[in-house]
Amino acid sequence: MEDFFQESETVMEEANKKKTLAEHWATLKGEFKKITWLDRNTVIRQTAAVVAVAVSIGLLIALLDVVIEYALKLVL
Fold this sequence. Notes:
The protein is mainly alpha-helical. Helices cover 88% and strands 0% of the residues.
């Protein structure tokens, strides 16, 4: 079984070596054409939503930190 994996790796290495840089870039370009890209407005709206949620959670954590710190000072 171990020989099978070694032979498979050797075949893969040879296949990768045969591919030139130009062929690699051509393949990559073809793959990028298959991607469904979002329009600019959608990206802007989603980015704004992510930033708003991140800031809101940060503020919530900061508020909880202040409240817990104040409560601990009262107790201790």
